[in-house]
Known about the structure:
- This protein is an alpha+beta fold.
- The protein has one domain: Glutaredoxin.
- Helix content is 39%, strand content 17%.
- The chain contains nine helices and 13 strands.
- A hairpin with a 5-residue loop joins strand 2 and strand 3.
Amino acid sequence: MHNQALSKAIQKRRPINFGLLLAVLLSAPVLHAQINQLPAELEGIGVEEKLGNKVNLDLEFTGTNGYPVPLRSFFKEGKPVVLNLVYYRCPMLCNLVLNAQTKVMRELAWTAGKEFDVVTISIDPTEGFDLAKAKRKWHLETYERPEAATGWHFMVDYQGNAKRLADQIGFNYRWDAKTEQYAHAATIMMLTPDGRVSRYLYGLKYSARDMRLALTEASEGRLGTVGDKLLLLCFHYDANAKSYVPFARNVMRAGGLLTIVIVGLILMMLWRRDRTRSLPAGVLANGVATVK
Length: 292
């Protein structure tokens, strides 16, 4: 009896969320390195990074008003674009990705719609623009920045263009009939103002520093403070750590440059002091005689 009850319980358990499982594997580099082979359901799923690849900005998608609009409408001069491919009926993973993205965006001093734009597109061709409209309303309310109403765009597929875009950025996903879910990775992409892939950020939690540096990098120096640009000289994105980490060579170069500047300033101060002392009495360092 006990074995029968256990067997029934196993049969009734919920299907595995393969998208969430893949996200865990991708966001845990050490664990991922120890696994020689992914489950069959996850083979071919993940991200094939295509840094520098330019996406087709003429691809059209259906907006929240029900009309198709070309992707280039959301790419403006000087503004990087945060792109994420999700689907709105996703039971778990997509919500976690969008929530994590919204959270880190709230931590930034920059605002979607001002310094950068966000484009969220459904990979499910059966979803209508009403779902995109509902998601947009929810996340804009959670974001709590009115300017984002013109800068965070939610859309659905149009004539299979979501799959074409996914192929161009290396975002590999597949419909799993057993679980009735899309298996996909937890990833957001940074694109340059002219539509080139600049950076991938992985996992279900993003640091404000990584987001800031990725946006600065994608903007090609148009966005970010002098400090952010200096950080990019000393940090580089580590695919294994899935984060920006110190780049030893550049840190040493920056440290050497700083040392030279400090030594130069000290020598200049000493030279000016010695020059002032060597001047004849009654003459200032600028050559003007004093009046007694």
